[in-house]
Design brief:
The chain is mainly beta. The chain contains one helix and 20 strands. The protein has one helix spanning 2-30; strands spanning 32-37, 40-41, 46-52, 61-65, 68-70, 72-75, 79-83, 91-97, 100-110, 115-123, 140-143, 148-149, 158-161, 164-167, 186-191, 224-227, 232-235, 239-244, 250-259, 273-283. The longest helix is centred in the N-terminal third of the chain and has 29 residues, at 2-30. 26% of the residues are buried.
Length: 293
């Protein structure tokens, strides 16, 4: 009789252990990823991962992006928040809990950081004009990728001559000495505050065309006003130029001055003109329209 009781107790213990083990495996099997937002971002971007049956202890979860460990900043049973870690590269976003792994689809894309800068005294000379004959002279070409003036006849995005700005997209306008268009650049004029223009999404981009530039020329038509009494060219307040580059990236520009060294109150008869100073933000990621972090 005692042997039977001992045998029954042993079976009971084994049953409980097996049941607990199965419950534990069921809990692990229930762990799942349902969505990740966003699915791309630069280092430091916050990522929200939604799912089910996440453990309460953050130390029980391992997160990697492209094989690089990330840190959990908040956690519930159905949502955790992390950030793209330093050194991360595009690849799998993987969660591992108690040896069980789940991979989010699609893979996460780590983007390059936006590039911002100020260009000072970009010289855009021209010949002729203002009663001195037909306007001509080479345009000064600029590349957002390099952040400076370029001599390349293909790797340029915008080009300056006097108050005229050309884009590397469309066709020649018929103006003297203008550069050949061989890219797909375009321009949109947006009214707003430079820092508050967050994206190029939804904008309509014009290209240079026969007889017309994408950015209209003339006072109060595009980016500037001209006061004939003071002979001063002034950027129109609140005008931001948004560009699609020759190779499908996006940038925004705020022109600050048309005069050398950007005087606060330029003298139109004494200060050297045709020197552009402007702020810009450039997104180096193809097809990405974000223009602010």
């Amino acid at each position: 009789m005692k042997s039977a009781v001992k045998l029954f107790s042993l079976f009971s213990i084994l049953f409980v252990l097996v049941s607990c083990s199965e419950d534990s495996m069921d809990d692990i099997a229930a762990f799942n990823i349902t969505s990740v937002s966003p699915v791309s971002g630069s280092v430091g971007t916050e990522i929200t991962i939604s799912g089910s049956n996440f453990p309460a202890d953050p130390s029980a979860i391992e997160i990697t992006i492209g094989g690089v460990p990330a840190t959990i900043s908040s956690l519930t049973s159905s949502e955790l928040v992390t950030r793209v870690p330093d050194g991360a590269t595009s690849g799998e976003l993987r969660l591992t809990v108690n040896g069980q792994s789940r991979t989010a689809l699609p893979s996460f894309t780590v983007l390059d950081d936006l590039e911002a800068g100020t260009v000072e005294n970009l010289f855009a000379p021209q010949t002729g004009g203002q009663g001195q004959g037909e306007i001509g002279g080479d345009f000064t070409r600029f590349s957002f990728e390099s952040g400076g003036v370029t001599e390349s006849e293909t790797e340029w995005d915008i080009a300056f001559r006097g108050t005229t700005i050309a884009v590397n997209g469309g066709v020649v306008t018929g103006t003297n000495d203008e550069p050949e268009r061989n890219g797909n650049a375009g321009a949109a004029i947006v009214n707003g505050i430079f820092d508050e223009i967050l994206t190029a999404e939804g904008l309509e981009f014009a290209q240079d065309a026969q007889g017309a530039f994408a950015i209209p020329t003339g006072s109060d038509n595009g980016w500037y006003n001209y006061n004939f009494m003071t002979n001063v060219v002034s950027p129109i307040p609140g005008v931001v130029l948004v560009f699609r580059t020759h190779d499908g990236r996006y940038a925004k520009v705020e022109i600050l001055s048309y005069y050398e060294n950007a005087p606060a109150n330029p003298d139109g008869f004494a200060d050297a003109s045709r020197y552009y100073t402007f702020n810009y933000v450039y997104n180096p990621n193809e097809g990405e329209t974000q223009l602010a972090r």
